[in-house]
Amino acid sequence: MNFECLIGWRQVRARRHNHFISFISLLSTIAIALGVASLIVVMAVIDGLQGELRNRILGVAAHAEVGARLTQGKAADSESRTVGLAHWQAVRERLAAEPGVEAAAAFVRGQALLLAGDAVRGVEVRGVLPVTEAAVSDIATHMLGGRFEDLREGDFGIVVGVDTARALRAMPGDRITLISPQGVVTPAGILPRVKVFRLVGIFEAGMPEYDAGLAYVHLADAQRLYRMGESVSGVRLRLTDPGEARAIGERIERASPDLEVLDWTRTHVAFFRALQTERMATFIMLSLIVAVAAFNVVSMLVMAVNEKRPEIAILRTMGAMPRSIQAIFMIQGMILGVAGTLLGAIVGCVLALEMGNIVRWVEQLLESQTLPPEVYYLSLLPSHLQWRGVLGIVILSLLLSLAATLYPSWRAARVRPAEALRHA
Q1: Helix, strand, coil abundance in the chain, percent, nearest 5
Q2: Nearest in space to 307 (alpha carbons), one of 16, 15, 24, 28
Q3: pLDDT given at position 72
Q4: Which of 147, 128, 125 is nearest to 136 (CA)?
Q5: Coil, strand, or helix at residue 100?
Q6: Which helix (H) or strand (E) holds 94?
Q7: What is residue 371's DSSP assignment?
Q8: Can you tell me the distance from the alpha carbon of 240 to that of 221, in angstroms, rounded to the nearest whole number?
Q9: Is 329 in contact with 409 (CB distance < 8 Å)?
Q10: Which residues lie below 8 Å from residue 310, measured CB to CB, with a gap of 6+?
């Protein structure tokens, strides 16, 4: 291919009488570079947002929850799970020793209404042991007021999210009435269980799902409130690698058929599936930009073939085969595609790696906040550059550039020498 490469390279470097072709060549290279850079930056930002949201969700939710397997005669709903997991201390120790499990903590889950004055809020109540809960979640690091460790057995303290506290207009130290839907049977009918708790802390996880709908109490207080006895709703696990949650859960279920594992990929499947769909849709739309930029090479090569018809005819009369002519123009187009792709990859990687600094610089320049935390729950635009993704974008751009050279090079190979020289 030395002959074809030499002429193809000279075609790119040569000065043209038709400056419009040179302009189209430069424009095609820049367009490919911009398309590749845009695709790399946007995908890095999307991956960063997904990672940030996942970390925030898993910082409060468990990587996996283990509970007693429901029998056939019990309804498969959340209320039936209040039958609880007996002998949970032994189960927790056994699960904590499983490969891939960093920590395990027991919990009690229930629904309740919180009342403070004339304000009412429905929440999910989670009974935990503060010491072990700190090993499986990051809730203790999200405290705005009070301390998570102030949840003590028998004190009936409660920790709520910042949105719940605002709705109840409550501050640490205030009294909050908790109404449990599990009632007490009396001659007058079924009455709900009512207990007054003291607000000992307020947290802000950065997710409305938790800030507005989750409250923590001590495990022993929750057991009394929901009549669990010595049982718990289940055991929450923190894993070394959250991506292995499904495999670890299946291994636990095989080893203990009486246990049922619900990992984070199932509890939040709709949310993460929506994020993945959005990522795929964005990738397809931005790939079209690269495709349009790559196919600018088609118009450039078609004009180059029409301009070089006499030269093509001379090469054919000198013995050049049609496939050699075709290879020359394919190499010419691919040089532009490779140059644009490499330039775009370099620019895109630099922008993606420095996205945080760029956003801060833009905010200082415009004297405004790009991502108000009260709206987006993020103060900075996260960016996570995946080199496998960059490689995939580069390969895609090169394939589109190659596809753009096929038709013009095929036309060049079909040029008839006699006819081209006659009209030269």
Answers
A1: 60, 20, 20
A2: 16
A3: 44
A4: 128
A5: coil
A6: helix 88-96
A7: S
A8: 30
A9: yes
A10: 420, 421, 424
Distance CA 388, CA 34 (A): 20
Picking from 199, 113, 136, 130, the residue whose alpha carbon sits closest to that of residue 162 is: 199
d(CA 322, CA 326): 6
User: Among candidates 18, 33, 4, which has minimal Cα distance to 336?
Assistant: 33
Closest Cα partner for 298 from 175, 220, 174, 404? 404
Is the four-CA dihedral 384, 386, 390, 392 of positive or negative sign?
negative
The structure tokens listed for 232 are 């718990």
The string of DSSP codes covering 33-91 is: HHHHHHHHHHHHHHHHHHHHHHHHHHHHS-SEEEEEPPPTTS-SSTGGGGG-BTTHHHH
Query: Is 127 exposed, middle or buried, given 0-12, 13-18 or 19+ CB atoms closer than 10 A?
Result: buried
AA letter at 408: P
**301 in Cβ contact with 16 (< 8 Å):** no
Separation CA 148–CA 161 (nearest Å): 12
**Residue located via tokens 């409305």:** 208
**Are the CB atoms for 282 and 382 separated by under 8 Å?**
no
d(CA 60, CA 50): 16
pLDDT in tens, 56-103: 788 888 889 998 876 544 444 444 344 578 888 999 999 999 999 999
Separation CA 415–CA 106 (nearest Å): 78
Separation in Å, CA 337 to CA 18, 283, 345, 398: 21, 20, 12, 6
The residue type of 148 is: F
Closest listed residue to residue 345, CA positions, set 288, 396, 296: 396
Secondary element (H or E) of residue 267 = helix 264-267
3 state DSSP class of 138: coil
The pLDDT assigned to 76 comes to: 41
Round to whole Å and give the CA distance between 68 and 170: 36
DSSP state of 170: -
> Other C-beta atoms within 10 Å of 380: how many?
16
Q: In one letter, which amino acid is 149?
A: E
DSSP readout, 310-350? HHHHHHHHTT--HHHHHHHHHHHHHHHHHHHHHHHHHHHHH
Which residue from 96, 44, 82 is spatially nearest to 193, judged by alpha carbons? Answer: 82
Residues of the chain with confidence (pLDDT) below 70: 1, 13-20, 70-83, 183-191, 369-380, 420-424
Q: Cα(237)–Cα(137) distance, rounded to whole angstroms?
A: 9
In degrees and rounded to multiples of 5, residue 321 shows phi and psi of: -80, 155
Phi/psi region, residue 146 (left: phi>0; alpha: psi -120 to 50; beta: rest), is left
